[in-house]
Specification:
The protein has nine helices and four strands. It is α+β, with helices and mostly antiparallel strands. The chain has one domain: Outer membrane efflux proteins (OEP) (Up-down Bundle). The protein has a four-stranded antiparallel beta sheet with strand order 1-2-3-4, with no helix packed on it. Helix 3 packs antiparallel against helix 4. Keywords: Cell outer membrane, Membrane, Transmembrane, Transmembrane beta strand, Transport.
Length: about 450
């Protein structure tokens, strides 16, 4: 009997020490999970490719600022039955007369002035590159946030699984003790059945909890784009930052929030689009030059063959005089787009401020809950210690001990959940301001 009580004390000592467990060889840290996701995640790769395309498009040639050089070659061959009547009245006829012509050369065209529209187009291309960079940053922030939140959810659920494991071990020891007491007549059959029901309940809870942990690991493997069946261990505890300051968050959001950066870029692009449209009021001046070679052959005619080659050059200028008032219409539309962009800036600023204020309030509440649940866990631990002493000397029943056991497990579960919620609140705030720091 004494040895069984020693086993119970040993098991309870483990749970009172926060249900520690042996780390597996496949430990995955949160930093490693983020690094793997950054290297493999499909959405991040797609955003990176979009940025590469935007960078490739930022060229002066794409903006229309460079000359175009074209090589031309044309060859025509004819077989004709021809009859010619000359001024003297003489007739000349030839069947299958051959007529050949060959033209080739190089032409160069260069728009040297279009109302400064080409410079506006070049600036728009640069803004599109900036837009791609911010969109990539936004995608990375979102995926990093998803990985971290999923990771620490696994930590919280794994800790709950460990608590259930410890509860099962305690219940097994209680069952053996109850059966021994029943065999010597110191306990009723009802006590044994109650303990057996408690054990079955714990094992059922463990199966459901193990399923939750496995599914979360599949989700994290999917975010990291690796084999879904890869098993791994996670860090032991959820650590959260309790030092965030509201005013500092608001200031950082103005500097780093991707949505604010994107809307500022969109406003700048709307202003550049107006400049590009206004360029249509000015003349377009284009230089043209080229060097051409021409050769013709004729079987019937005064000239049987001819050759020519030489340089041609000139200037083309055009200006829109009247286009059905479309120029005025497009300028008004561009101006309205600028006004819309300014309204969106104000709207997005308000949205971000509201999101930070709401998230910060939730963050403070979750910090308070984490501190409260930590205190509750300590109280539940003390209660379990006292109950354990009474159980050892036989002054309380197995049912009363079970209540203390469940209270402690529930306290551990609530404390882990409170820490996770505090971490998720912190993560949400950092995602909003655009600066998730793993240090």
């Amino acid at each position: 009997m004494k040895s069984k009580k020693m086993r119970i004390v040993a098991v309870l000592s483990l749970i009172l020490l926060a249900v520690s467990t042996v780390r597996g060889q496949g430990l995955l840290t949160v930093k490693e999970a983020v690094e793997i996701a950054l290297n493999n995640n499909f959405e991040i790769k797609l955003s990176q490719n979009d940025l590469r395309i935007a960078k490739e498009n930022v060229t002066r040639g794409n903006a229309g600022m460079l000359p175009s050089v074209t090589g031309n070659l044309t060859q025509n061959n004819n077989l004709q039955n021809s009859t010619q009547t000359q001024a003297s009245g003489e007739k000349r006829s030839l069947r299958n007369a051959k007529n050949n012509s060959l033209n080739y050369g190089v032409s160069i065209g260069w728009t040297i002035f279009d109302g400064m529209g080409m410079f506006s187009r070049f600036d728009i291309l640069k803004e599109l590159q900036k837009q791609g960079e911010v969109q990539l940053k936004s995608t990375i922030l979102q995926k990093v946030s998803d990985v971290i939140s999923t990771y620490f959810t696994i930590v919280e659920q794994k800790n709950l699984l460990l608590a259930i494991d410890s509860s099962i071990t305690i219940s097994k020891e209680r069952l053996r003790t109850a059966e021994n007491r029943f065999s010597i007549g110191k306990a009723s059959r009802l006590e044994v059945l109650n303990v057996q029901v408690n054990l079955n309940e714990d094992e059922s809870s463990r199966l459901r909890q193990a399923d939750v942990v496995k599914n979360l690991k599949i989700t994290l493997n999917s975010l990291m784009v690796r084999e879904l069946s890869v098993d791994f261990d996670v860090e032991r505890d959820v650590e959260y930052d309790d030092s965030l300051v509201f005013d500092e968050l608001m200031q950082k959001a103005k500097e780093h929030n991707p949505d604010l950066q994107l809307i500022a870029i969109n406003r700048r692009m709307a202003e550049l689009e107006l400049k590009r449209v206004k360029a249509g009021r000015y003349p377009t001046v284009r230089l043209n030059t080229g060097y051409n070679f021409s050769q013709t052959e004729s079987s019937l005619g005064f000239v049987s063959s001819s050759n020519s080659r030489g340089l041609n050059y000139g200037v083309t200028a055009s200006i829109n005089i009247f286009d059905g008032f479309n120029q005025r219409r497009t300028e008004k539309v561009a101006q309205i787009n600028i006004e819309n962009a300014e309204l969106l800036v104000e709207q997005t600023n308000l949205t971000i401020k509201t999101a930070i204020a709401t998230a910060f309030q939730t963050y403070q509440t979750n910090l308070s809950l984490a501190r409260l649940e930590e205190n509750n866990e300590d109280i539940a631990r003390q209660n379990l210690n006292i109950t354990l002493e009474k159980y050892k000397i036989g002054t309380i029943s197995a049912v009363e001990f079970r209540d203390a056991q469940e209270n402690f497990i529930n306290a551990v579960s609530r404390f882990n959940s409170a820490k996770l919620q505090a971490k998720l609140s912190e993560l949400q705030l950092k995602e909003i301001i655009g600066n998730i720091n793993l240090e």
